């Protein structure tokens, strides 16, 4: 761990007259302490950066290792583009639904609307439910609104027939199921943000004559907006990258394939007669996720700047 | 007719009484401080005037109108919070104009009023800044401007300076007082800093454990404290245990040394245990006065406080602190040196309340 | 506060109540449905037959213990990597914090399915992808990086709250060596954060499906999936059991956090 390393901060002897050269500036920045991070960084390189790099590189390589745009061009296939579009739609809708509903639940938890025992129950449940997915979640919904699910049966008994118009193993089904873990994620992340809304702001606004609506419109929602937007991005990414739940519900290539299933299927079959296309499919996913993370970081920085204000 | 009236105001929480028997009449344009230690009920009372707490019983009236049951956002009282409470997402200008905006005023009017306020607090160049870009003192001035912009009937300030450095505190409190005088707004100021209260108030309400201990001008509170608590809380004070030897002629005994208090001691008979309060600045060293009192003791400690030198003298069982101006030509007394403390009888205040 | 409650019109009250009840039902009914279904293994009567079958299956024991072992290994590696790194960063190179945080966010950028794909492609031919040991190593490595965001955030928060720099300097000025500092000063104050991260990692690894199935590892996730195609009632029983296990982890985290007074980690 570098226990014996002293905190050296410069290794260059500078020429006093010359303007700071690149070498000198590096010298001032470098510290042997950075080597202490080596184990961690090596691990990240080995298990994150190398795979990512390999995907990026191999996306532009053919079987012999020569540069080619073939893999990327092959993405221009209706099935593939449809899968990307499905994933984006799915992620967007479930992020929206999760954010909207989760917003109110988080508000309920932090504003005192719910009594104390419900509050902690909701928070622990959110911790569990945000992790819920794959077979257990799919199964739970099959048991609820599947062909013989208890809700289906109950609705039938009062004359409402879900089937055959509704199918659980479809895009709509995925939306309904995905929201189950999107809402708790929103709650977990927004509850602290709500708690960051200081009581004095609400009192000051009231004192200055504002109604509750005006308080939310001019003060609370604008302050919360970066957190909401950033969490929306997180929810989007969460749904976009999810594979287990889709796999459990739809299987390896149903009519509504999402991009994660498509990538996963490249492991076992070679549906496109192009072994390299798996790489570019994965590359496409990485591109989407990078954009998402940028949006998330942008809003996160904005919110932390504002919430550090006044009296603290 | 007083402008702000609190009558028999009482506030009870689940397991304790925060404020009781609060009666106060404040004149228009008056600057009144609520002074007391934490937990004495001063902030609770202020919040009842603002409308954030509802009195359990009693009445609050402003300008003849009973506002006890009026919601907080309809009272037109301006409040300045201890933590400034500036809206972080709004600029300084928008913060100041907030009260006018929610009332639906025309934007020209708002702009004009905001400019006026910025002038008042001397922060014209800061209009476009955000709270997180301001220092503590600047934020507090903006908070003040925001509260005043709505032309409140009463201005309420809840320990507005306690989060600031000492030097800034002193400057800012004078600024606040100047603005208040200029605009003539009735103001209630909550603080635990007695120096602050003494220096800027027209009147002070000293509170302890939910009750009003004394109401009076700074001079009254300091020179004529009515209770032991007030005497010990306001200013530094020597509070000595004594026994009455001659009530009619005002003579008491401290540790076997008899002194005169210059007036008859009410409600007392010989032998009664009382407390006597003497301000440190009233005492001098080894004076030769035939009409004054003398207390003999030995110097225990000498503290140099800048312009003042504070000497602690041990009597037989008790201590007396006295202050003397720093004089480079005089040698301060040595530790252990026997001294004689001199003070006039009128400087003694006999305090007889329950401990 | 009841004060703000009074400010709502009664219409708003009703709408809010209906809304929250609907949300509650959305969450509870599927769980109840699973539970009810799991009790129906024996025709005509409700009982815990399915649970008994599940727990007695040898496959269950094998896959569960493999997952258990993997989870513990992951926790070990992750903790050993993160704790010294987080400590080192706070102590010596505070500037590096945002860089490290960026690294711990990478698992979000590279979803599980993409990660597995990349791992296989990257290490194809290196021997890692040929042996089952090698593949298992890849899986554990992937899991460790998956746990980084949570473990790092937890430990970092814990170190922040104990002002680790000041403590270290104080210990050094009293003559303590590095080992003493780590074991007597840092670790006792940070172990709750470590446990916190450990439990989250445990929950994640135990339930993980994507990476395990694509790497053909017989852990709990794939086992559950296979069960679904072969049995009728047992999958639902097992689902609830796994859910219960996750809930237990979270509950223990909260219990620990409350006992030691350390606040819950926040993401935003």
Provide a descriptive summary of the structure in words.
- The complex is a heterotrimer of chains A (312), B (355) and C (268).
- Chain A contains 13 helices and no strands.
- With 312 residues, chain A is mainly alpha-helical.
- Chain A has a domain at 77-133 and 179-306: MetI-like (MetI-like fold, Orthogonal Bundle).
- In chain A, helix 10 packs antiparallel against helix 13 (277-306).
- The longest helix of chain A has 34 residues, at 78-111.
- Chain B is built from nine helices and 20 strands.
- Helices cover 24% and strands 34% of the residues of chain B.
- Chain C has two domains: 2-38; 57-260, MetI-like fold (Orthogonal Bundle), CATH 1.10.3720.
- Chain C has 268 residues and is mainly α.
- Chains A and B meet through helix 9 and helix 10 of A and strand 6, helix 3 and helix 5 of B.
How are the SSEs ordered, and which strands pair?
The complex is a heterotrimer of chains A (312), B (355) and C (268).
Chain A: H1 22-29, H2 38-59, H3 70-73, H4 78-111, H5 116-129, H6 134-145, H7 150-157, H8 171-195, H9 199-207, H10 212-240, H11 244-250, H12 259-268, H13 277-306
Chain B: E1 4-12, E2 17-26, E3 31-35, H1 42-50, E4 57-62, E5 65-66, E6 77-80, H2 92-96, H3 98-103, H4 107-120, H5 136-149, E7 154-158, H6 166-183, E8 186-191, H7 194-200, E9 203-208, E10 211-216, H8 218-223, H9 228-233, E11 238-246, E12 251-254, E13 257-260, E14 273-278, E15 284-285, E16 293-304, E17 308-314, E18 319-325, E19 338-343, E20 348-351
Parallel strand pairs in B: 3-8, 3-9, 6-7, 7-8
Antiparallel strand pairs in B: 1-2, 1-4, 4-5, 9-10, 11-12, 11-14, 12-13, 14-20, 15-19, 16-17, 16-19, 17-18
Helix pairs in contact in B: 4-5
Chain C: H1 2-7, H2 10-38, H3 49-56, H4 58-91, H5 97-109, H6 112-122, H7 132-161, H8 164-173, H9 178-207, H10 210-214, H11 220-230, H12 234-260
Helix pairs in contact in C: 2-12, 3-12, 4-7, 4-9, 5-7, 6-7, 7-9, 8-9, 9-12, 11-12
